[in-house]
Write a structure and sequence with these properties.
By secondary structure, the protein is of the alpha/beta class. The chain has 2 domains: about 130 residues, no CATH class; about 130 residues, Mur ligase, C-terminal domain (Protein-Tyrosine Phosphatase, Chain A, Alpha-Beta Complex). It is built from 7 helices and 12 strands. It has a 6-stranded mixed β-sheet with strand order 7-8-12-9-10-11, sandwiched between helices. A 4-stranded mixed β-sheet has the order 1-4-5-6. Strand 7 and strand 8 form a beta hairpin. The longest helix is centred in the middle third of the chain and has 16 residues. Bound molecules: zinc ion. The site of zinc ion has 8 residues, from loops.
């Protein structure tokens, strides 16, 4: 955890902490694979007030107070539907609807505030910042809204599925999983992805060199196997995906991202 650096230098007055207030989909219990269950300084089990995603949330060590920091900038009123949040009562409108990007934006606001950059400049910059190249890329393909996200590990995949689950619209998912050298040959991490209770997903197409592994993983989570379609061939997978005009979510791992984007015509 990044704040370990701060804790390791307690006399340094140049360390500033930022945080994000509890948002609508925060949970009391950990629902996803998470790290850091024990205090890195005294090994006591950490107590969480809430989890935002994975192991990110409000916590403290009951023994040594690790995690109980003075917060320099706190994002509040996070509204992912309208894509707004506040810091010091100033509203920021952004293009992204993921909680982890609210953390990134709050980090940016903290940094630039220390350089006394005018709030209007920050508001303006954040309102125009668009993620692309498979980082929650929002595009229209064949006239159908499509959201593409790279996911290289359980946390990235769970954040992608979190955004999918926070969207009540009917949707179909394409999950492309490769096991090339850059991906790591071991794909057992897919068993740490939380595919339980997917919200209004009517069909899942899988592809990549491990199309069948990810299909089995999803089936094991309880998703209707009749609605899972594995294709080793990416072109066939994309054609199958776009045979309906339902909204699409695409999750691709490392080496599968660019071939998937090309197949989608991007
Ligand atoms: Zn501790």
């Amino acid at each position: 955890m990044l704040q370990d650096f701060g804790q390791a230098n307690p006399e340094n007055s140049n360390i500033y902490y930022f945080s994000v207030d509890k948002y609508d989909y925060a949970t009391k219990e950990l629902k996803e694979a998470g790290e850091g269950k024990f205090c890195p300084f005294c090994n006591t089990r950490i107590e969480y007030e809430y989890y935002q995603y994975s192991h990110i949330g409000k916590f403290r060590c009951p023994n040594c107070n690790y995690g109980d920091n003075k917060i320099y900038k706190l994002a509040t009123d996070v509204d992912l539907k309208n894509r707004t949040f506040k810091v010091n009562d100033i509203t920021y409108k952004v293009r992204s609807n993921s909680i982890y990007n609210i953390y990134n934006f709050t980090a940016v606001i903290s940094c630039v505030s220390l350089y006394s950059i005018d709030t209007k400049i920050i508001q303006n910059a954040l309102s125009k910042f668009i993620l692309n190249n498979g980082r929650l890329e929002e595009v229209e393909i064949r006239g159908i809204p499509t959201i593409i996200n790279l996911a290289k590990n359980p946390t990235g995949s769970n954040v992608s599925l979190r955004i999918l689950n926070e969207d009540d619209d009917e949707k179909e998912l394409l999950f492309v999983l490769n096991d090339n050298m850059a991906d790591g040959f071991d794909v057992s991490w897919i068993w740490d992805i939380n595919f339980d209770n997917l919200n209004n997903v009517s069909r899942i197409v899988t592809s990549g060199t491990r199309a069948y592994d990810i299909a089995i993983r999803i089936k094991t989570a309880g998703f209707d196997p009749e609605k899972i379609e594995p294709y080793l061939d990416l072109h066939e997978a994309v054609e199958a995906l776009y045979k309906t005009n339902i909204k699409k979510y695409v999750i691709a791992n490392y080496t599968s991202l660019q071939p998937t984007r090309r197949e989608l015509g991007l």
